[in-house]
Amino acid sequence: MQVTETLSSGLKREFKVVVAAQELDNELNKRLKELAGKANIKGFRPGKVPVPHLKRVYGKSVMAEVVQKQLDDASKKVLEERNLKPAYQPEVKLPEDQAEVERIFDGKGDLSYTMSLEVIPTFELKDTTGLTLARHVIDVTDAHIDEALARLAGQYKDWQAKDGKAKKGDRITMSFTGKIDGQAFDGGTAENVPLEIGSGQFIPGFEDQLEGAKAGDDLLVKVTFPESYGVATLAGKPAEFEVKVTGVEAPKETVIDDEFAKKLGLESLDKLKETVRDRMSQEFAQMTRLKLKRDVLDALDEAYSFELPEKLVDAEFNGIWNALDAEMKRSGKSFADENTTEEDARKEYRAIAERRVRLGLVLGTLGEREGVSVSEDELQRALVDRARQFPGQERKVFDYYRKNTNALLELRGPIFEQKVVDHIVSKAEVSEKKVTREELQALVQDEDEHEHDHDHHDHDHAHDHDDHARHDHDHHDHAHHDHDHAHVHDHAHHDHAHDHAHHDHAPHEHTPVRRTAPAKKGKRGE
After folding, report:
1. Which helix (H) or strand (E) covers residue 231, if one does?
2. What's the burial of 399, exposed, middle or buried (CB within 10 Å: 0-12/13-18/19+)?
3. Distance CA 244, CA 190 (A)
4. pLDDT attached to residue 47
5. Residue 65 DSSP code
6. From 8-12, 97-101, 176-180, 492-496, the region with the lowest mean pLDDT
7. What are phi and psi of 408, to 5 degrees?
8. Mean of pLDDT values over 370-391
9. How sure is the predictor about 175, in pLDDT bands with cuts at 50, 70 and 90?
10. Amino acid 354: pLDDT
11. Is the CB of residue 109 less than 8 Å from the CB of residue 103?
């Protein structure tokens, strides 16, 4: 094998590799001899098939195996001899001339190809021992508990039949048929559907027209589907719904007592309050960890500046941009709607991609030096937690991750990253700072309050997604936690020759699928 380095510029390397035809032929004959001892071909005794005959019959197919093995072995040897750590799977470019390819497979031509890659950048790790951090802490107060109980009471209302007209806050039961241009459309018909007027469950304008309705009324509700509606065939279309109101109910006053707690599956109000307090403590602790982690990442981002593998940045950017583009198309948003341009948005998200890759390399290298590892037990717990997010489909989730190495890497990455951050925090000077929930929410710049305080919200709004009278709640613009992860390259546990672009841990955690516009300007926490 002859190897010639044809490019060495920054992190980029390129090599021309030539494997002589004689080497290929030797490997081919070696492989054919192995097959001769096992082959069972009509006209020959088992294991007695002549090698020349095998070569005539199976020569090209076996040569294909030989060539593939030579590519793998030669490429690995090039990296090992030069102590190169590729940032992703090296790219191999084979001959395109058909005649040349035929000569190789006929055993008459050398195998000549180019191998290109970018290497993991080398940089000096900085001492984080003197890092000064603040742990923002929220105390759970009685007022927090009362607020949470009030929300629960609002979500678990009891109803009683009402004579007379429905008003905002009342619940009606109805059947309806939706039509566009006089024709009923798929998903536009439902029977005995309960709806709290003013809840915002249905498309804009629908619920307003139900105010004043009485049991037994027949209504014609006229609405226009939003331009951003998720079903393209309905988006922007005017529709009419023939509605039959079968019942009107008013909410009963909810008394928060032991009986209310039992309704929620707990034995007493005290137990309910204890449960709520524990849950809010967990919520606040999660916010505290998020803020502390972001401060660590910000400090690292300010401390390091080095050349990045271009392909890794491209892969990171493309993942972000493709998710953003899909969301904007789905929501009907444009960059002009957000007072920006595509060019400016690309620059901003490119900077985010660069930051993620840089922080991933720093945390990965630091974790390797400090011996940080992810145990199988930790990985299994993460897999169980992920499966729990898909009730009824746990087995499918387990099977998916067990069969897909890259998917498991997506689970391992955030665990490894958090452990490295925890290691940094353990050596830093950390003070405690008491803050309010609102203050901490503003600091982390996300919508955790919405996500955590409304866990029952999704249950209340659970509905058939084919029911097109209902509002598509997925259009809420939940600020994404880009800041939370850095796509760590766990050098201590993975062969550098694999495709690091696959370290995009968990899509729902790392791409702005909820964002309909570029992030606000300011300190980049992504």
Report:
1. none
2. exposed
3. 11
4. 59
5. H
6. 492-496
7. -65, -35
8. 92
9. very high
10. 96
11. yes
* Token pair for 46: 């088992």
Q: Calculate the average pLDDT of the chain.
A: 81
Per-residue pLDDT, 468: 55
The span from the CA of 312 to the CA of 353, in Å, is 9
> The tokens of 183 are what?
């024709």
| β 132-137/429-434 pair status | parallel
Residue 498, both tokens: 């694999």
Place of tokens 């199976």: 58
Token readout for 526 is 């992504």
Nearest-CA neighbor of 101 among 67, 128, 134, 133? 67
Q: Per-residue pLDDT averaged across 297-309, rounded?
A: 94
CB count within 10 Å of CB 182 equals 6
* Token duo for residue 490: 């766990």
- Strands (E) in 2-102, as ranges, are 2-9, 12-19, 91-93
d(CA 272, CA 252) in angstroms, rounded, equals 21
Tokens of 79: 């990296």
Structural tokens at position 415: 């665990």
Residues 39-90 have pLDDT tens digits of 656 656 565 566 676 677 666 778 888 888 888 988 899 999 999 999 989 9
Rounded to the nearest 10 degrees, how much is the dihedral formed by the CA atoms of 61, 63, 68, 72? 150
- With 80 as the cut, is the pLDDT of residue 265 above it? yes
What integer pLDDT is reported at residue 370 of this predicted model? 93
At 165, the amino acid letter reads K
Which letter, b or e, does each residue of 449-464 get, where b requires 16 or more Cβ atoms within 10 Å of its Cβ?
Answer: eeebbeeeeeeeeebe
Residues contacting residue 451 through CB under 8 Å, at least 6 positions apart: 478
**Would the pTM count as exceeding 0.85?**
no
Start-to-end C-alpha separation, the chain: 45
Q: Are strands 111-118 and 12-19 parallel, antiparallel or unpaired?
A: antiparallel
Q: Which of these, 173, 215, 172, lies nearest to 197 by C-alpha position?
A: 172
DSSP 125: P
User: How far, in Å, CA of 419 to CA of 416, rounded?
Assistant: 5
- Distance between CA atoms of 212 and 261, rounded to whole angstroms? 34
Hey, what are 144's tokens? 């927090």
Separation of alpha carbons 39 and 314, rounded Å: 48
Q: What is the pLDDT of residue 176?
A: 96
Distance CA 515, CA 316 (A): 16
Element (H, E) at 156: none
